[in-house]
Write a structure and sequence with these properties.
Blueprint: E1 11-14, H1 18-30, E2 36-39, H2 42-52, E3 57-59, H3 64-68, E4 72-75, H4 84-91, E5 95-97, H5 99-107, E6 113-121, H6 126-139, E7 144-148, E8 166-170, H7 176-182, E9 185-191, H8 199-202, H9 205-217, E10 223-227, H10 231-234, E11 242-246, E12 252-255, E13 258-261, E14 264-268, H11 277-292, H12 297-300, E15 315-320, E16 323-327, H13 334-343, E17 349-353, H14 363-371, E18 377-380, H15 385-397, E19 402-405, H16 409-420, E20 425-429, H17 442-453, E21 467-468
Parallel strand pairs: 1-2, 1-4, 2-3, 4-5, 6-8, 6-9, 7-8, 9-10, 10-11, 16-20, 17-18, 17-20, 18-19
Antiparallel strand pairs: 7-21, 12-13, 13-14, 15-16
Helix pairs in contact: 5-7, 6-11, 7-9
Length: 469
């Protein structure tokens, strides 16, 4: 559905975050006579009325009956389409779309392809990968947009002038299905990996995987760049897309710290600014995508040395008294916490885990703590902290590591520093869980961690390169 097709329809917005505001701004500009209703929580209603004025009717009665009065509801990504109200309204004919869907429909050519667009998704690593992709494309001299889930909604850059040569678009699992529903086809789509996440939004692990893979199974990109080492991806058959595989010997892959293209050694990543081996491995995905666009990826690979890492992702924010503080607030799954630990192998680590409880299984994490070299200390916190603590207690009782429970992040940092003592080490906040319920988002959690460690949070939060440059 294109924006012009909304004219004359009964249209509502659902959610007044940045995506909702972007949708309102675009519709107000393109279709100024279109009446609009906003559904949002009462806490947001006063802000919405103040910002939009009489151009927007604001309601907080989000029910199936209320939503069903509209033909189209433009929904913010964080609102699940599987909730009771949305399902009831959809059953009565209401169409739910998002800003991502509108953007792709607007940019498709006559064949339905959104040229020079690379979409990146995956359970972990997608923000760094998308940023690195934009960095290398800019290193080629091309004007490039870094947009999407990374912090700049697509509708905020609907028609930039001059237009970028390339679009590097990060997509969450909340948005991948929107591309498929737009009827458009990205030129290149990259899927990095799949682990259980956001089960409260998707409803089940199977649906999460289905929604995530919609970027390649439903949107039918011209070229699909896939991780051969991921079992979910390795089993895919995509008859409507050209498949390009990374992490396999014939393509871009890692051997030790070196990136290879087939049998050709291309680049030593040992001293790159990419935090963690998994991010250095995702460089292979980036180079495969660059090559899929027709550029010389081998020549561009050394430009990774000038890449600036993103905040809240294995970010060293500083050291005090022999203790190094690492902010991995973006970590929202146990697998992400394990990847973070791998980055500091051989060092004395006090690990902070726990947050909002989405019901994810921590047994794999526990098994790693039983058989790998564990941290010196694990401090649990947050709503799922007690559940994680109970799973780890037998290992702590056996002397594998120290284990303490904290009431909040303040106490967790104090306990971690005390556990490291005069010998020092790394306080690693890699929670493996979202920040909901305590913080507005993972950025706010990272800022608080920086404050508790004694550093200026304003110095750690900017995302390098976001936007068009």
């Amino acid at each position: 559905m294109r924006i012009s097709q909304l004219e004359g329809k009964r249209v509502a917005l659902w959610g007044w975050g940045r995506e909702g505001r972007a949708a309102f701004a675009v519709l107000s500009q393109r279709l100024p006579a279109l009446p609009l209703t906003l559904f949002c929580p009462e806490a947001e209603a006063a802000v919405a009325r103040a910002e939009a004025g009489s151009a927007l009717q604001v309601r907080s009665d989000v029910t199936g009956d209320a939503l069903a009065a509209f033909e189209v509801v433009i929904k913010s990504p964080g609102i699940s389409p599987y909730g009771e109200a949305a399902v009831a309204a959809a059953g009565r004919g209401t169409q739910f779309i998002g800003g991502t869907s509108l953007w792709f429909a607007e940019h498709a050519d006559a064949e339905g392809t959104v040229r020079d667009t690379v979409c990146v998704t995956g359970t972990k690593g997608k923000s760094t990968t998308t940023s690195l992709l934009a960095h290398l494309l800019r290193a080629s001299g091309a004007r490039t947009a870094l947009v999407g889930n990374i912090g700049l909604p697509l509708l905020e850059v609907l028609d930039p002038q001059p237009a970028p040569a390339y679009w590097a678009v990060e997509l969450s699992s909340y948005q991948t299905g929107e591309v498929a529903r737009s009827g458009a086809h990205p030129q290149v789509a990259v899927v990095l990996n799949l682990f259980p996440e956001h089960l409260d939004w998707h409803g089940s692990e199977a649906r999460y995987i289905e929604d995530k893979l919609a970027l390649v199974t439903g949107a039918a990109p011209r070229i699909a760049v896939l991780n051969a080492a991921d079992p979910h991806l390795a089993a895919l058959t995509l008859p409507d897309s050209e498949g390009v595989w990374f992490n396999q010997p014939d393509g871009w892959h890692m051997r030790g710290e070196w990136v290879y293209r087939g049998g050709q050694a291309v680049f030593d990543t040992a001293h790159t600014p990419l935090p963690g081996r998994h991010n250095r491995g995702n460089l292979c995905a980036v180079l495969a995508a660059v090559e899929a666009l027709g550029l010389d990826a081998v020549a561009l690979a050394p430009a990774v040395q000038e890449f600036r890492p993103l905040p809240n992702r294995l970010q060293t924010i500083g050291s005090r008294g022999g203790v190094r503080f690492v902010n991995d607030s973006i970590s929202t799954t146990p697998h992400a916490s394990l990847a973070a630990l791998e980055c500091f192998a051989g060092q004395r680590i006090a690990l902070l885990v726990g947050g909002h409880d989405r019901g994810l299984d921590w047994q794999d994490f526990v098994q790693h703590m039983a058989h790998d070299v564990p941290p010196v200390q694990i401090v649990t916190m947050g709503a799922n902290g007690p559940r994680i603590h109970a799973l780890l207690q037998p290992l702590a009782d056996a002397g594998r590591f120290g284990l303490q429970a904290a009431a909040d992040l303040d106490e967790a940092v104090r306990l971690a520093c005390a556990a490291l003592g005069a010998q020092g080490g790394v306080v690693l906040m890699s929670p493996g869980a979202p920040s909901y319920g305590v913080y507005r988002d993972y950025v706010a959690r990272g800022r608080h961690f920086a404050e508790l460690a004694g550093f200026d949070p304003d110095q750690i939060t900017a995302i390098p390169g976001i936007g068009i440059a």
